Amino acid sequence: MNARRSLLAGAAAVMTIAACTRAPYLIVFNRTDVPLTIQRTPPYDSDVTIAPGAAQRVRFPDAMELTVTAGAATWRYAVRFPPRELARWSRMGRPEFQVQVEPDGRVYVLPPDAVPPVHELPPQPSGFPLAPETCGD
Predict the structure, then answer these.
(1) What is the pTM of this model?
(2) Among 2, 37, 38, 101, which has the minimal tally of Cβ within 10 Å of its Cβ?
(3) Is pLDDT at 15 greater than 70 in this prediction?
(4) Does residue 72 fall inside a structural domain?
């Protein structure tokens, strides 16, 4: 009986921890010469547009995919999580990853203490920079 209670208590603790996990955010810096529009995908209720030379904080996409329009081009990305050590933490305890979109559409993950725009891009972890699939120019 005690083993069953311990098992149930352990399962409840794991479920509580999982429920408290905070969804990560991306701080997206647009280093292109055109506005970038992240097309509506959950959790976005509407398109998100980022002006050239500006940054925008957005939720990490639930679908792990993003479609971005950049002028006449449409870029599709298979999004992946950057390594945890590249996160900075918000006051609410949410991980935030800084990324910088270059004119060729590549997305570079930046160190947590970087101040965009970063002209000398740092070495990238495995899987980065993200390269877009170009859908139209």
Answers:
(1) 0.79
(2) 2
(3) no
(4) yes
